[in-house]
Design brief:
The protein is an alpha/beta fold. It has a single domain, classed as HUPs (Rossmann fold, 3-Layer(aba) Sandwich). The protein has eight helices and five strands, in the order βαβαβααβααβαα. The chain has a five-stranded parallel β-sheet, with helices on both faces. Helix 1 packs across helix 7 and helix 7 crosses helix 8. It starts with a strand and ends in a 9-residue tail after the last helix. The mean pLDDT is about 95.
Length: about 220
Protein backbone atom coordinates (compact mmCIF):
# COMPACT_ATOMS: atom_id res chain seq x y z
CA UNK A 1 0.00 0.00 0.00
CA UNK A 2 1.22 3.54 -0.66
CA UNK A 3 2.03 5.46 2.50
CA UNK A 4 0.46 8.79 3.37
CA UNK A 5 1.21 11.22 6.19
CA UNK A 6 -1.94 12.80 7.63
CA UNK A 7 -1.86 15.93 9.78
CA UNK A 8 -4.38 15.02 12.47
CA UNK A 9 -5.53 17.73 14.85
CA UNK A 10 -8.42 15.75 16.31
CA UNK A 11 -11.01 18.04 14.73
CA UNK A 12 -13.78 17.30 12.26
CA UNK A 13 -11.88 18.34 9.13
CA UNK A 14 -8.71 16.38 9.86
CA UNK A 15 -10.76 13.30 10.78
CA UNK A 16 -12.63 13.38 7.46
CA UNK A 17 -9.37 14.01 5.61
CA UNK A 18 -7.80 10.95 7.23
CA UNK A 19 -10.85 8.89 6.23
CA UNK A 20 -10.52 10.11 2.63
CA UNK A 21 -6.82 9.20 2.61
CA UNK A 22 -7.61 5.72 3.88
CA UNK A 23 -10.45 5.28 1.37
CA UNK A 24 -7.97 6.19 -1.38
CA UNK A 25 -6.00 3.06 -0.46
CA UNK A 26 -3.24 4.57 1.64
CA UNK A 27 -1.49 3.20 4.69
CA UNK A 28 -1.95 6.27 6.90
CA UNK A 29 0.70 7.60 9.28
CA UNK A 30 -0.83 10.29 11.48
CA UNK A 31 1.05 13.28 12.87
CA UNK A 32 -0.23 15.57 15.62
CA UNK A 33 1.34 18.43 17.55
CA UNK A 34 1.41 19.55 21.14
CA UNK A 35 2.28 23.11 20.23
CA UNK A 36 1.28 25.05 23.33
CA UNK A 37 -2.41 25.22 22.48
CA UNK A 38 -4.97 26.22 25.10
CA UNK A 39 -5.87 22.63 25.93
CA UNK A 40 -4.88 19.04 25.19
CA UNK A 41 -8.44 17.83 24.60
CA UNK A 42 -7.96 17.80 20.83
CA UNK A 43 -4.92 15.52 21.17
CA UNK A 44 -7.04 12.97 23.03
CA UNK A 45 -9.44 13.06 20.10
CA UNK A 46 -6.59 12.74 17.59
CA UNK A 47 -5.37 9.57 19.31
CA UNK A 48 -8.87 8.11 19.34
CA UNK A 49 -9.47 8.96 15.67
CA UNK A 50 -6.13 7.47 14.58
CA UNK A 51 -6.94 4.25 16.41
CA UNK A 52 -10.47 4.06 15.01
CA UNK A 53 -9.20 4.52 11.46
CA UNK A 54 -6.54 1.84 11.86
CA UNK A 55 -3.58 4.16 11.35
CA UNK A 56 -0.22 2.46 10.96
CA UNK A 57 1.12 4.88 13.56
CA UNK A 58 0.27 8.10 15.36
CA UNK A 59 3.17 10.36 16.27
CA UNK A 60 2.78 13.42 18.52
CA UNK A 61 5.53 16.05 18.31
CA UNK A 62 6.10 18.83 20.82
CA UNK A 63 6.55 22.41 19.63
CA UNK A 64 6.35 25.43 21.90
CA UNK A 65 4.63 28.00 19.70
CA UNK A 66 3.20 29.53 22.88
CA UNK A 67 6.59 31.16 23.44
CA UNK A 68 6.09 33.10 20.23
CA UNK A 69 2.58 34.18 21.23
CA UNK A 70 0.39 36.19 18.91
CA UNK A 71 -2.69 33.95 18.97
CA UNK A 72 -5.68 33.33 21.20
CA UNK A 73 -4.99 29.60 20.81
CA UNK A 74 -1.56 29.86 22.43
CA UNK A 75 -1.95 32.85 24.76
CA UNK A 76 -4.59 32.64 27.49
CA UNK A 77 -4.48 36.42 27.86
CA UNK A 78 -6.08 36.79 24.41
CA UNK A 79 -9.79 36.02 24.49
CA UNK A 80 -11.29 33.56 22.01
CA UNK A 81 -14.07 35.32 20.05
CA UNK A 82 -17.57 34.01 20.74
CA UNK A 83 -21.07 34.50 19.37
CA UNK A 84 -19.98 35.93 16.03
CA UNK A 85 -21.95 35.63 12.81
CA UNK A 86 -20.34 34.65 9.49
CA UNK A 87 -19.97 38.28 8.37
CA UNK A 88 -17.97 39.11 11.49
CA UNK A 89 -15.84 35.97 11.06
CA UNK A 90 -15.05 36.89 7.45
CA UNK A 91 -14.25 40.55 8.16
CA UNK A 92 -10.59 39.98 9.05
CA UNK A 93 -8.04 37.34 10.02
CA UNK A 94 -9.15 36.30 13.52
CA UNK A 95 -7.04 36.27 16.68
CA UNK A 96 -7.26 32.47 16.64
CA UNK A 97 -4.83 32.45 13.70
CA UNK A 98 -1.54 30.96 14.90
CA UNK A 99 1.30 32.68 13.00
CA UNK A 100 2.78 30.34 10.36
CA UNK A 101 1.34 27.26 12.11
CA UNK A 102 0.54 25.33 8.95
CA UNK A 103 3.96 26.07 7.49
CA UNK A 104 5.67 24.83 10.65
CA UNK A 105 3.51 21.70 10.78
CA UNK A 106 3.77 20.91 7.08
CA UNK A 107 7.55 21.22 7.30
CA UNK A 108 7.60 18.57 10.01
CA UNK A 109 5.15 16.46 8.01
CA UNK A 110 7.47 16.73 5.03
CA UNK A 111 10.38 15.38 7.07
CA UNK A 112 8.17 12.61 8.45
CA UNK A 113 7.01 11.72 4.93
CA UNK A 114 10.57 11.54 3.66
CA UNK A 115 11.65 9.24 6.49
CA UNK A 116 8.59 7.02 6.02
CA UNK A 117 8.95 7.13 2.22
CA UNK A 118 5.39 8.45 1.93
CA UNK A 119 4.07 9.62 -1.41
CA UNK A 120 1.66 12.21 -0.06
CA UNK A 121 0.86 14.54 2.84
CA UNK A 122 -2.81 15.04 3.63
CA UNK A 123 -4.05 18.15 5.42
CA UNK A 124 -7.60 19.11 6.39
CA UNK A 125 -7.45 22.81 5.58
CA UNK A 126 -10.53 24.53 4.24
CA UNK A 127 -10.75 27.86 2.44
CA UNK A 128 -14.55 28.26 2.64
CA UNK A 129 -15.34 28.07 6.35
CA UNK A 130 -14.86 31.81 7.01
CA UNK A 131 -11.71 31.30 9.07
CA UNK A 132 -9.78 33.72 6.87
CA UNK A 133 -6.51 31.96 7.67
CA UNK A 134 -3.95 32.76 4.93
CA UNK A 135 -2.29 29.32 5.23
CA UNK A 136 -5.52 27.50 4.32
CA UNK A 137 -5.72 28.82 0.74
CA UNK A 138 -5.13 26.66 -2.36
CA UNK A 139 -2.36 28.97 -3.58
CA UNK A 140 -0.50 28.46 -0.30
CA UNK A 141 -0.70 24.67 -0.60
CA UNK A 142 0.46 24.80 -4.23
CA UNK A 143 3.42 26.96 -3.24
CA UNK A 144 4.37 24.62 -0.38
CA UNK A 145 4.26 21.61 -2.68
CA UNK A 146 6.56 23.35 -5.16
CA UNK A 147 8.99 24.14 -2.34
CA UNK A 148 8.81 20.60 -0.99
CA UNK A 149 9.80 19.16 -4.32
CA UNK A 150 12.99 21.18 -4.59
CA UNK A 151 13.93 20.61 -0.93
CA UNK A 152 13.92 16.86 -0.40
CA UNK A 153 16.16 13.97 -1.38
CA UNK A 154 13.34 11.80 -2.72
CA UNK A 155 12.03 14.61 -4.93
CA UNK A 156 15.48 15.33 -6.36
CA UNK A 157 15.74 11.62 -7.12
CA UNK A 158 12.52 11.77 -9.11
CA UNK A 159 9.89 10.82 -6.52
CA UNK A 160 8.02 14.02 -5.62
CA UNK A 161 5.57 14.26 -2.73
CA UNK A 162 2.01 15.49 -3.19
CA UNK A 163 0.15 17.82 -0.83
CA UNK A 164 -3.45 16.58 -0.71
CA UNK A 165 -6.19 18.83 0.67
CA UNK A 166 -9.47 17.13 -0.27
CA UNK A 167 -11.64 19.55 1.74
CA UNK A 168 -10.10 22.82 0.67
CA UNK A 169 -13.01 23.88 -1.56
CA UNK A 170 -15.85 22.21 0.37
CA UNK A 171 -18.40 23.89 2.60
CA UNK A 172 -18.81 22.58 6.14
CA UNK A 173 -22.07 20.81 5.33
CA UNK A 174 -20.38 19.00 2.44
CA UNK A 175 -17.56 17.97 4.78
CA UNK A 176 -20.07 16.58 7.26
CA UNK A 177 -21.85 14.64 4.52
CA UNK A 178 -18.55 13.29 3.20
CA UNK A 179 -17.54 12.15 6.66
CA UNK A 180 -20.85 10.40 7.17
CA UNK A 181 -20.58 8.66 3.80
CA UNK A 182 -17.13 7.35 4.73
CA UNK A 183 -18.23 6.39 8.24
CA UNK A 184 -15.48 8.55 9.66
CA UNK A 185 -15.41 8.49 13.50
CA UNK A 186 -16.81 12.01 13.78
CA UNK A 187 -18.18 11.22 17.23
CA UNK A 188 -14.60 11.13 18.51
CA UNK A 189 -13.60 14.57 17.21
CA UNK A 190 -13.12 17.86 19.05
CA UNK A 191 -13.46 21.18 17.19
CA UNK A 192 -13.91 23.64 20.07
CA UNK A 193 -11.23 26.25 20.72
CA UNK A 194 -11.85 25.86 24.45
CA UNK A 195 -11.14 22.81 26.60
CA UNK A 196 -13.54 21.21 29.04
CA UNK A 197 -15.85 18.24 29.25
CA UNK A 198 -18.18 19.58 26.56
CA UNK A 199 -17.65 21.90 23.58
CA UNK A 200 -18.51 25.53 24.33
CA UNK A 201 -20.87 25.88 21.37
CA UNK A 202 -20.19 29.61 20.87
CA UNK A 203 -16.61 29.97 19.57
CA UNK A 204 -16.16 30.39 15.80
CA UNK A 205 -15.17 26.75 15.33
CA UNK A 206 -18.17 25.42 17.25
CA UNK A 207 -20.59 27.74 15.44
CA UNK A 208 -19.30 26.70 12.02
CA UNK A 209 -19.43 23.04 12.95
CA UNK A 210 -22.99 23.28 14.28
CA UNK A 211 -24.11 25.18 11.19
CA UNK A 212 -22.53 22.50 8.99
CA UNK A 213 -24.46 19.72 10.68
CA UNK A 214 -27.69 21.71 10.53
CA UNK A 215 -27.29 22.40 6.81
CA UNK A 216 -26.41 18.76 6.18
CA UNK A 217 -29.59 17.70 7.97
CA UNK A 218 -27.64 15.55 10.42
CA UNK A 219 -27.24 15.45 14.20
CA UNK A 220 -23.85 16.40 15.61
CA UNK A 221 -22.83 13.45 17.84
CA UNK A 222 -20.79 15.52 20.30
CA UNK A 223 -22.18 17.35 23.33
CA UNK A 224 -22.19 21.10 23.88
CA UNK A 225 -22.48 23.22 26.98
Amino acid sequence: MPRAVVLLSGGLDSCVTAAVARKAGNDIHCLSFEYGQRHARELESAAAVAKALGAAEHLVLRLDLAKLGGSALTDAAIAVPTGRDERAMAASIPVTYVPARNTVMLAHALAFAEVRDADSIWVGVNALDYSGYPDCRPEYLEAFERMANVATKRAVEGRPVRIEAPLVRLGKADIVRLGESLRAPIHLTWSCYEGGEYACGVCDSCLLRRKGFQEAGLVDPIRYE
